[in-house]
Design brief:
By secondary structure, this protein is α+β, with helices and mostly antiparallel strands. It has an 8-stranded antiparallel barrel. Strands 10-9-12-14 form a 4-stranded mixed sheet, with no helix packed on it.
Length: 328
């Protein structure tokens, strides 16, 4: 039931009761006339008010629809920056940047491939509000993390503004930049090729099987033993251990005289024994593998001096005859 039909009976009863309470019989006609007039006025007031109240919900719905339409229009008016861009002014050459977009949020990648120097790749995040663009580029350059903040205005298919660079907590660069889009094929973007650093053994050098066989006083390291297990050399001899295992190996003397550290597969380790003695050693990777090097003193070979003795030129002492006492 509408509000006007609910209020009308209550108003009629009120007016009728008020008229009777006046208690003047002579004026009953006048009272009834007045009551009738009041009822007509109340009815007119209700009729005028009710349509306004009944149309209020419709006005609210219209306002809501208009707001939603305005929001949708504003969302559809966000500029599209989903392109591949060429950014100038930050590096000596162009930085190639690809941007993807989710509403006002921007994200993507960037790369720099100079004619000389090291390539680098980076990550990009940012946003757009109307024509104002903010981007942050983070990249690893020359083994340093560098962050570049770009703020600019999009107009005529370009972004122009200023940038600032920070590395290691210090401002390392700033100035103007410009970005121009040149392709909407964002899927065609590929990161820059980064050359991986080369690693080389610090101590050992690799040798082929033929080269190994030609190395004198060498010990072959296998996965289970040393070959030969024992070797005898003279003082001053250099012994070479060669790793023929498929994994790293290492040798060390029991008395701490030498320690090879890790020897890569195919690598070598050399040690020169200057003192006589027996040197036990083992594999620090597989301690059950043991071996020994026996080092002998160097003696003078008198046979080499026989011609001097027989010809009287000298003796094994190297002192001329007649100057060394009894002489020969």
């Amino acid at each position: 039931m509408s509000k006007r039909y609910a209020i009308l009976p209550i108003l009629l009863v009120f007016l009728f009761t008020a008229g009777l309470s006046l208690g003047q019989p002579a004026n009953n006609t006048s009272i009834m006339e007045n009551n009738t007039t009041n009822v007509e006025n109340a009815t007119s007031l209700i009729n005028e008010t009710a349509p306004a109240n009944e149309t209020a919900p419709a006005d609210e719905t219209t306002l809501g629809n208009e707001t939603a339409a305005a929001d949708a229009k504003e969302a559809s008016s966000v500029l599209d920056l989903k392109y591949i861009w060429s950014v100038m002014g930050i590096e000596p050459g162009p930085i190639i940047m690809v941007l993807n977009q989710d509403g006002e949020d921007l994200f993507g990648q960037a790369k720099y491939e100079p004619d000389s120097g090291e390539n680098w790749n980076g990550e990009v995040v940012g946003s757009i509000a109307k024509d104002e663009v903010d981007l942050t580029l983070t990249a690893q350059k020359d083994k340093q993390l560098v962050t570049t903040k770009m703020s600019g205005i999009f107009a005529d298919e370009n972004i122009n503004g200023n940038f600032s660079q920070v590395s290691g907590g210090k401002l390392v660069g700033k100035g103007p930049f410009s970005a121009t889009y040149f392709s909407n094929e964002t899927s065609s973007y590929t990161p820059a090729a980064i050359e991986q650093p080369k690693t080389e053994p610090a101590i050992q050098q690799t040798a082929s099987a033929t080269e190994t066989a030609a190395i004198p006083n060498s010990v072959e390291i296998t996965s289970t033993n040393f070959q030969p297990n024992s070797m005898t050399v003279q003082a001053g001899t250099t012994v070479t251990w060669i790793n023929h295992d498929t994994t790293d190996q290492a040798v060390a003397s029991a008395n701490g005289e030498f320690d090879s550290g890790n020897i890569v597969p195919g690598g070598q380790y050399q040690y020169t024994f200057s003192q006589a003695g027996t040197f036990a050693y083992y594999s620090t990777i597989n301690p059950s593998m043991t071996g020994r090097i026996i080092v002998k003193r160097v003696f003078h070979n008198v046979v080499e001096d026989a011609d001097k003795i027989l010809t009287g030129v000298g003796d094994i002492s190297g002192v001329p005859i007649g100057m060394g006492g009894s002489g020969l």
